[in-house]
Amino acid sequence: MESKECETLWSNKQGFIVRNRKALVKMGEPNVKITDNDKGMTGNTNDGSSEQQRCDLQSPFNDATKPMFKIKTYAANTDKRCTISLLALVVLLSFATRFYKILEPPHICWDETHFGKMGSYYINRTFFFDVHPPLGKMLIGIAGYMTGYDGTFPFGKPGDNYEHHIYWGMRGFCALLGSCLPPFAYLTVLNLTQSPAAALISASMLVFDTGCITLSQYILLDPILMFFIMGSVLSMVKFNQQRDRPFSAPWWLWLLLTGTNLAGALGVKFVGLFVILLVGLNTASDLWGLLGDLEISMVEFGKHLLARVFGLIVLPLSVYITIFAVHFVVLNKSGPGDGFFSSAFQSRLIGNNLHNASMPEYLAYGSLITVKNLRIAGGYLHSHWHLYPEGVGARQQQVTAYLHKDLNNLWLVRRPDSSDDPPGYPELVRHGDIIRLEHKETTRNLHSHLHEAPLTKKHFQVTGYGINGTGDPNDLWQVEVRGGRRGDPIKVLRGKVRFLHRSTGCVLYSSGKTLPKWGWEQVEVTCSPYLKDTPNAQWNIEDHINPKMPNISLAVLKPSFLEILVESHIVMIRGNSGLKPKDNEINSKPWHWPINYQGLRFSGVNETEYRVYLLGNPVIWWLNLISLVLYALMVSIAAVSIQRGVSLGERSIERSGVLMEAGGLLLLGWLLHYLPFYAMGRILYYHHYFPAMLFSSMLTGVTWDTLLQCGDLLLPPSTAYYLQRGGQALLLLAFLYSFYLFHPLSYGMKGPLAHEPDSPMAGLRWMDSWEF
């Protein structure tokens, strides 16, 4: 190696990279003497040799797979029996806190009304719609079925008693997965830092956090999601530890477990994408290091790359798709989710009127049809005898979108100038044709004009006008097929069409807004002057009756697995983005969450009710917030010290390495699971922060353990030892005592509210925004 390669980056025997030649002497290397030799460097030792081997002053890039900071082997520095004993204690406390009073209260709490009901749908094989992927609800259904629940409880609303129905299995399953979070945190931090103390602090924060306990005790997706997130992180860390044993059995095991856990996280909620991004960034860094290792051939590097592609892309994707395949096979009966999906999708559901049905394949004049909007829950084009009230556009017959199948959804397809159909085989309606739609029940035509719509004021009103098919030119609409050309026939079920109003040039549109009581709280239909190609402006022909035409079985129009998989994801994504705050509903803000600004009522409001309130342990949450600032300060000090060549001992170097590498990974996990919520337009809730809180708690354990170890820099060894142990004990006691104070929030309480002196929570309402 030429000497000029060593001018800026050097390494000492601990493997620590030094950017200052003088610092190498200061940092515990008395046998190394640095002298200038022309523009290069020659290291001379005091043993009389003329030149030291260049490997003592080498560029770190010559061995890019070795970590910048060497962390001592765990087996040489810790007592395994102590470590196992602490893990056993964490497991015991975690299960005890999660399963205590698991059957209380014996009624529906908060979102149990949704996810318990969805578990019942799986048992009954009834199709439903949810904005999240199916794995979490599927596992809840399996847990209920395996423990004797028969799927008959209606899960109507929060507060409904379970009575004789078996619900403990579903709650117990969620508590089981929630109980795994503290042990997973313990093992993750232990493997990152090799410090049982840091691992115990991190795990204890999760054991004694009232928020984590509450989320784990009910039939919810959160404990299932967090189980897979923590499982992914632990597997990733264990896989990283096998870096020196590539392609061994443990190496493959942890790689495949990481991929499986990633599929599980994404299969429960789309929030699982954040941990996928974390693992992806870690993998990219790992591969970049391998690419810089000159001892590894490109063939060997290709093997590493392909192994990770298989374990972290192909395997998770296969598991994720399999989850949906099982979902579609199990939920094969018509249910409340039908209307969210296309007519072709519905044709595969037993009990749906389109299942095993037959109808003419192409739309024709004289046909009796229903027209369905393609937005989520867009409804069927509908009319009835009721008129728009005074002051709401023209006082003509209402036209709406109705979510249910009804006789008032039926329309006749007419020519623009005649209500009579010529004898013989009907003429097909084609792309670009001008038609009228006559409402079968009231014989009025679909009509629009320049009056403003009832709710969407920049759109035009749509009404029913005329009688017995006789109206005016404002009843004419041009039919266009998406992706079609003039003259193309219009296929029922699968064809996506839009209706352009001839007089005004607007397009028939379902706004998604709910009309007042005068409109029977049905969905507003307008004519939009904005001709964007959106689902709101797209429709399909669902029912199609024409006795003059031959019918075909809808089985030939049934969508493929890939088509229903893609449609499901489109519907879920649109459903997620469509979750907006209702009137007078408080929308939680992401900045509220780290400061524990406001919790969530799970059960009960007044003194006589059994009250459960989701709120994180404030001592733990505020310590997490302080620790984020403290971590940034400590890393800054360490980085500046290194850059300035400050003399650091071997132990300080190791601590800096742990703080930067382990802490940096956990900080990245927190950022990835928290910051994206600032960019989300949907309604947000307090419980969305809990995955980020897991990373924050682990980072707190690493930060405070490192800080307490630094006592030996200023104090005698014996004093530093007692300071470290005392600090650790003080933290653990603070967690335990604060849990004792706030545990009624998790396990429930009755009687006086917090502002009354004889309340169990008297004096503990530290923020006015806490509603317990």
Automatic annotation (TrEMBL):
PROSITE patterns associated with the record: MIR (PS50919)
Ranges where the MIR domain occurs: 360-416, 426-482, 487-544
Bias kind Polar residues: ranges: 42-53
Gene Ontology CC annotations of this record: endoplasmic reticulum membrane
Catalytic activity: a di-trans,poly-cis-dolichyl beta-D-mannosyl phosphate + L-seryl-[protein] = 3-O-(alpha-D-mannosyl)-L-seryl-[protein] + a di-trans,poly-cis-dolichyl phosphate + H(+); a di-trans,poly-cis-dolichyl beta-D-mannosyl phosphate + L-threonyl-[protein] = 3-O-(alpha-D-mannosyl)-L-threonyl-[protein] + a di-trans,poly-cis-dolichyl phosphate + H(+)
Transmembrane segments: 166-190, 252-285, 305-331, 619-642, 662-680, 692-715, 721-742
Location (main, coarse): endoplasmic reticulum
EC number assigned by the record: 2.4.1.109
Subcellular location: Endoplasmic reticulum membrane
Record region (Disordered): 34-53
UniProt keyword annotations, A-Z: Endoplasmic reticulum, Glycosyltransferase, Membrane, Repeat, Transferase, Transmembrane, Transmembrane helix
Class in the EC hierarchy, top level: transferase
Membrane-topology descriptor: Multi-pass membrane protein
Pfam families for the chain: MIR, PMT, PMT_4TMC
Key word Transferase present: yes
Record GO terms (molecular function): dolichyl-phosphate-mannose-protein mannosyltransferase activity
InterPro entries: ArnT-like_N, MIR_dom_sf, MIR_motif, PMT-like, PMT_4TMC
Superkingdom, taxonomy of origin: Eukaryota
Annotated family: Belongs to the glycosyltransferase 39 family.
Full protein name: Protein O-mannosyl-transferase 2
Natural source organism: Aldrovandia affinis
